[in-house]
Structure formats: structure tokens, C-alpha cells
Amino acid sequence: MNDQIRISPVRLIDAGGEQLGVVSLAQAKEAAQDRELDLVEVAPDARPPVVRLMNWGKRRYEMQKKEREARHNAHHTEIKEVRLRPRTDDHDFETKLKRTRKFLEAGNIVRVVMRYRGRELRRPEVGVATLEKMLEATSDIARVEHVSKKIEGRRLLAVLEPAAG
Question: For residue range 92-104, what is the model confidence (pLDDT) as tens digits?
Fold first, then answer.
């Protein structure tokens, strides 16, 4: 940009996109000063290098604005967690199932955690059955990404992600 350009001669393009031809670097800088614009190198690898007359501050602002808008419109996937117990009652299970389905429909990843307490670890198959019941109930809208094969600490995990389509 401006004084950082070192190679002369350059191919000059004005603000409207018209080619002004191959000119010396000094002439290009003078043209930029006359029009109160910046001289920006757009194709440094070309021979001669291509420079353009433009308002660099305005151009940079527009690029930042587009970038902010793209970030704003992007969907951010979150990991939501639903906790179950081996002896979760039917009504509570249905409530947690509805919440899980809502998270999946919103496009979020859901981690289903089966937590054991006290003597519940003596019969882990009860918790496994409850977890499998949850996975089966969400199989129409979710894809199972991961299910832990064994109990880690006092937890059994399953990770669900929304089914494509």
C-alpha cells in the first residue's frame, strides 16, 4: 500500500476499474495523491505488478462488516447435557426425552449422562437399559456418535448428534 510498494513500473487501474496503462511508480503515487485515494497493490506476482487507486479505509471497513455479518449468521453448535439416573421414573424420563429432542431439533449435540449413586452400581444393567431406552426413543432424529462401553467412575455416557437431513 502507498509507500510500501517498491517495484517500478506498475500497471495502474483507477477507482472505476479502468486500466490506465503501465506507468512509473512515481506517476502512480502522484495520481493517487491528486484524487485523494490510496495506491493498493492487488497483484504483486504479476509483471509488472498491478496497483489500484481506491479508498483503503472504506474497503477495509466493508470487509470487516462482511466478516462480522458472516460470523453473526453462522450457526454455533453447542453441547447440551441431559442427566439420567438408573431408576428415573417414567414421567421424569418423558420430560428429559422431550428436552433431548428439543436440543437435537435445534441442531445441538446432546451428551446423555447416566449417573450412578450408592448401591446403584451393584446393578449397572438397570442404568444401561434406561440409557438404551433413551437412545431408542431418539433414534428417528439423532445419530449415536459415541456410547461408552463401560462405566467410567460412576457415569455412563452417550453422545447424540442430529441426524442429517
Answer: 999 999 999 999 9
